[in-house]
Amino acid sequence: MSLQPILLLLGVLMISSTQGARNLRIIPQRPSPLLRNKAPLSVKCVFNSAGSDISSLTSLKLYRKKLGQTAYKLAASKVSSEVKSSLGPGPTVTAEFNGGGESFLSVKYSTPTDGYCYTYRCVAEGKNYIGQLRQEFTTFGISSPRGLTCTQVFAITTTKAPVLSDCSTGQSVKDLEEEVNNNELKIEKLLIILIKASTLGSKYFISDFYNGRVYFMSKTNEGFNLNTKNNQCIDAGGYLAELDDTDEQEFVAQFSKAAGRSSVFVSANDVDKEGSFVQYNSKKPIPQLKWKKGEPNNYANSEDCTAINADGLSDISCTSTGRYVCEVPLV
Length: 331
Known about the structure:
Elements: H1 3-9, E1 15-19, E2 24-29, E3 42-48, E4 56-66, E5 73-79, E6 82-85, E7 92-96, E8 102-108, E9 118-127, E10 133-142, H2 150-157, H3 173-199, E11 204-206, E12 213-218, E13 222-223, H4 226-235, E14 239-240, H5 246-258, E15 264-269, E16 305-309, E17 312-316, E18 321-322, E19 325-329
Parallel strand pairs: 1-10
Antiparallel strand pairs: 2-3, 3-8, 4-5, 4-9, 5-6, 7-8, 9-10, 11-12, 12-19, 13-18, 14-19, 15-16, 16-17
């Protein structure tokens, strides 16, 4: 009598694991083009019984972990006839067991960036032809979409606003649908902004997110012109920075300082009426902001634009050479 039957007769449980088995694979299906709405990423765990030591499949499990981390977490599973997901609302899980052919467990994500920047592990469990427990697993890493870092991808996925949990009980279905659509638009706009930022990286420094927006600061000194620079900001998805309060002023000042600039142009100007500063794009009067001591002073009667630095705003000639800041809102 061979060794394996002896162990079975003694009641010893044996589980044999095989990594990277050719009959077990993970298939990522990426959207094309990337930003097409309703074309999210799918991750499919596929098991083929042909050539496998597992003759009777009992479960398929899909685990995932963020790239660079060590611990896997169960994402979805099919055990016998029961299909489960631990991914929360949004992703769709489907599964099918086929005794003589391919079985699969699939996760389809609901937004274009979900599911990226993870390593996935697919685990198949079952029994061989003499009833011994067997396990096979394989892993596959899915990198970030082209043009995005993994940090940016996870920033997008954590920016999603709660939809149902924060709704008042009297809110109509139409209101909920509008809220869902608005949140989807925010996420898609954010993705577009980040992809633009990656392509404009040679021209601009990119800030962190602040109150639903980012800021682009030009990297080179150029002759300034309000209309020209505002149009360049529009091409980048925003407009010349409009400071709405002292908190935003402080954020932009610290951003420009971190990028190595002590002074950069913003949109406030009094071109039309001396002493009455307005935002260039919105034409709104500027709020109460912090000015440098002695500013604005309209030196030599030729300072109609503004620059920001750590000490506050100052008026400056609209034809000076310098750098400028664009404000790019999420909505």
